[in-house]
Specification:
homooctamer, alpha/beta, five-stranded parallel sheet, 5 strands
């Protein structure tokens, strides 16, 4: 597996990452990691690699856009000195365009999104010495590509892909993952609002990230 | 307007009607009518026709399918001796097929739905002496007719239309109403789960019903 | 209608406006607008004009007199840079004279009220570039003009009328509106204390404001 | 004073009497008497006559009309075997006519009120051996006799007066008492809804009852 | 009566005065005066003298000794500019000697008590222009003068009497009042801990203060 | 020590025994024994005799008089088939005479108390095969024997002593124990109401019972 | 995989299975499956086999011994007509021997345990037509085989193994699984009490069961 | 006994000492001492030596390691000017090594532990004038010395013993005490997590400390 003893992996983002994690930094005992995919990642890491001590940290904050995350990037990532960083941001950048269309400054347009995320990437690269960066696409659990919000989200996903390639990051394509799932089940089975996954969705997301980590589910120890 | 002094209008259905109304019968003081379209109907009736005493009753129950509503139809409608009845049922009949697909008996298939609703209509016609029956279509705030749940819901809506015509009911086509709205705004602006409207949606639904009632918003009194 | 795409309309006042809105500024998702007439105004605007994006903002604060509102007028109105402003203040200026008569400084006498409201109007006119100002009269849901509190309130209402005419504002006469209603129903049907309307009263107030806006309830879209 | 050692005095009625008393019978330790005039009566009795043991019992139930009270009269009065009974009922008989005018059976019309109260009186006289009966008028803290609810309440007050005279009861005229008070202060100072007194009103009511009891506030002991 | 229109009477002290009043200053609407004797004083003043506007203010703080009260005397009394002041302090000065005997600095010995109370009196006399000062004795609802706490409390009561005479104050002897009561009933009937009165005790205390005010319970208005 | 492996000791009584224990039978895990002397007895038994399994059961019920306890004696004692029984009852028999003197049937007079307790003793002797019975005196933490409630309580204590001697029971004289304590500290240090001990008092009571059991605090194991 | 479309798998047992599941039968929407290994099993099944509809049912009840489970076996298993049954019982049978040693009837001895579990197996075999039975061993997360509770638990585990072999069941050896884990991490990392796993432990248990099901974590769909 | 009139004894440490005590300093009325061994120490002191006033103070803070306690040592000990100090620290220093092994800085290694505790001792000796210092060993209620956490804890216990001898402190060996207990009962009977004692364990710890104090349980007074 790509993670090594005592590696610290910081996951940051919005409510999908947050999922009720401890503030300002979620890690350690009890429910500190929240109830989402970060929780399930540590579950699987410990269940399959109990001999490996890995420090999982969650700094997601509910409601964040890329603009909000960039503002708190020192606290969310830089000052924690991680070995790995995973960013999943952009859903609120899009969502606010559709649920409160009359308040345009609550949303973030694609060009600002690109600038915000790229600045995060450059700050990590310039100020930290990390082993790898996961860039997770925002997503909308909507199979219809003509849906306004899905169509808009696809613009942001495309930006993630460009940035991942340009900066040589590990791209985690949550949108593609959900698309496969939605061929078999309706989104109502994993999320009431097509955004916040229930725990089945959280496991799917955890697995999608671990798929990029040479993770072995059937490892003997 | 079609309603006359002291008419009693009973609205029944599932959580969309219920919206937190008093149990077993919601009417009278305080929050007894709940927080949904029934509340907004009384608001508009009293605001525009304060000189007319109309008794609005809500017997919606959250989670009900047409099978559940039929079982409690004595308490929900018959024993209340209404002058008008409004039924809005079917969303859960469909939803359970998609959110818990492994538990088939929690859902209701189209043929049973038709039978259930028709039995309700016949019971009203046979056992009561009402001035009119509103049959409201179930709906899914999804503009894409190929969405599995929307497509399935359309089958139930079609059944409502047939039954309304066959039995000479007042058809309230909530699906068509939301369809018009969705041409301008995304469903995220009125419902997180494309089913339960926020208060803007509740007013839209109230207006849709009153549109069939010769209701005058600008009436002088 | 008088409102145009992306207009921001700020409603401010006391508990009748507040109605549990988000602090310090109520707008956007969930229950941010509170549970009163501002909520119902947005409901009707969105239900009838979904194609028009209008930003509704609520800065009412429970218990405010005109003196309190003037003190926080930067935060309540000026800094928000609205296109339209609606002010409904004065009820507590009067009420405190009757419910705690031994604490005179908790109330505001008519001359100070006139000065306070006029200063608000002038600040809007001088510091902002608005399209219109709604001045809503305070009211007491009491048909008897000899009632002490109603009689006193009428002095404040008269001041509003003078100021509206002098400064060319849109006068919303809530007192006259409730007076018409009270010809048909007792105040007990819409407010326990003759001040705080239930949701039927909230719709009445919303309609009264929209009556000055070329609002079309039956508009096709 | 008219009460003697170990006399039991049962007060019954609606929410004004109830005021949060213990159910089904309020008496004894802690807050069992509620927070209204019955509480203040015991306060004054014990403060001025500590040498006299008097058993004060409260069986008021919030929301009761005379019809409701008559139905539970065995539990509320007869089975308690009191030496004195005080009845204060009728406010809800009237109120329901104005706050939910479309639900007529929730109110009680004057003729039924007369019948209900007279049956209570006769049951006490026939089935118990009491030393005296207090009949307290319902009231509305509204000085304007043309107010619809006040005018209607006056019909019920008049019935109380007739019945008190006919059956030789102690009439406690709460309406007259509040009328005197309202010459000096607005109702807003003692009740938000002109019905439920705050604690100042509760003391006024207690004093009004004790005025018929040869009660001495300045008694030395 | 000794109080005149718009007089402000400030009551201060410990938990017996506090009784849950609003902080930092209890007065005005709702439960701001707490649930003790100050509440009952306003009740009786308004019930008997509704034509007289009197401002009742409560600044008691639970747990205060005379040392604590002296420290906050600016906020508790001086800055409020009262016309009358009533002080009831000393119970905790004594109580702490008996319930936590191992923490001597939590109590206040008699000589410090005398100094503290006299400084309060002098501050009122020097810095305010009051019409009168009520000095209420601390008390212990214990008839046995040999009880350690009662015996100690009597020392503090004696100091109050000396100070009242020396400075020409209105002495309210709560200890003597309770002593009379305890000839007829056990302390268990008004206070579980022989200190905090239930509402019957609160009325007794209110009456004891009003006895020094030419208060007329049977006044016609 | 007098208790042997697997002995079951049932403690019953009023709130002093109850102290929040599990209902209907307090024993086993967590807080099932409540927070009073029964809890402290098990604490000391386990701390000093961990090698001995003793089953401690608490069936005290708050507010019980001897009359109440006798009525539920099957559930409280007989059906539990104990090896030892400890009864501590009588405080409420007396207290109700003083805190609610106007409701005489809520108290129990001495002759009935004697009869009730003796019937409990005889039922144990006749229906069970116990190794011993502890009869604990009721008490009032009041050193002054002329205090009305203490004087009355002494009558009940005397009855306990007679019955203990007559039936050869183990008498636990809580009144004498508290009397010794009150020579050194005021009752305010262990109970606000002179009845319900804080946890220091609970340990004193536990020790008093264990003093009759050949209990060795310094035992080596 | 061994499970086929629409198979119903019922998991029953004690608090480890229960984990806060819905009562009386946990399945379907929201948190109905609780927060333990059953939840994680459905998570993994849906994440890897979304094309397969499997009905997962949880009837665990906190605190159950094998005796308790046998008593409710109709409701817990038989009446649900499952295709597969998984039983995990026995921990409380052992635990009660150590945490409340003085109450022997709260525990279940090995011979009764064998009898209880075998009766469950036979009932399933005789009354249902299942495709397979999982028998999960009880466990104690304690690596030291000389620990009293571990040693005792091993007797129960041995019985499970015998019964699984005799009746040809799928044996899930949780004790062996935890033993492997405890070679690398201390039990404090997954359970405070060595019994109730945190969510990492829940995933380990889910994986252990799925290991017997030809489950493919990396399956493409 | 070694404690003299008015001695102040400060107990500090982690959650075992804290047990819900008042912050920042636990002493005096009500539940200020928490629910653990400090509470039981005062209970026994007052029950056996009521004639002796001893001030018991608790400054334990849940979750503290020796590093945390050293940081707050001014507030926890020095500024309180105690006559005796009791320190029980180290459990979290060890525990964090096992429950969150991937976050090494949350734990404290032996050499730092030695340094931290010795600095506490020296500060007491240099800055205060105490009569004695109790150094209580950390412990783990685990009889198996090969258990990782027990083995590690033994290193810290050994350090305590060295420091106690070197600095002439009163060593309280909780580990040895629990070891004796665990010969007779399983740890499950006093602590679910082998660290936090229930109230039986709290009494055992209190007794262990008092064993070093010439405490006489059977003293007559």
């Amino acid at each position: 597996m790509i993670f090594k003893e005592f590696d610290r992996i910081v996951f940051t983002g919005d409510s999908v990452t947050d999922a009720g994690c401890q503030k300002p930094v979620g890690e350690g005992l009890f429910d500190s990691l929240g109830n989402g995919y970060v929780r399930e990642i540590e579950n699987l890491l410990v269940a399959c690699y109990p001999d490996l001590k890995l420090r999982i940290t969650n700094t997601g904050v509910s409601g964040n856009t890329s603009r909000d995350l960039l503002k708190r990037f020192d606290d969310a990532v830089i000052n924690l000195n991680p070995d790995w960083v995973s960013i999943c941001i952009g859903i609120n950048d899009v969502w606010r365009q559709f649920d409160v269309p009359a308040i345009p400054e609550s949303a973030v347009q694609p060009e600002e999104y690109r600038k915000n995320v790229e600045e995060m990437i450059l700050r990590i690269k310039n100020e930290l010495n990390v082993k790898g960066i996961f860039l997770c696409t925002p997503y909308y659990m909507e199979p219809n590509k003509d849906d306004w919000m899905r169509a808009k989200m696809d613009e942001y996903t495309a930006i993630c892909k460009e940035l991942a390639e340009k900066h040589n990051l590990i791209l985690v394509d949550f949108q593609a993952m959900y698309e496969k799932y939605l061929k078999y089940r309706h989104s109502a089975s994993i999320a009431w609002d097509r955004v916040h996954p229930n725990r089945m969705g959280a496991v799917m997301m955890a697995k999608e990230i671990l798929n990029h980590c040479d993770f072995d589910y059937n490892r003997e120890f």
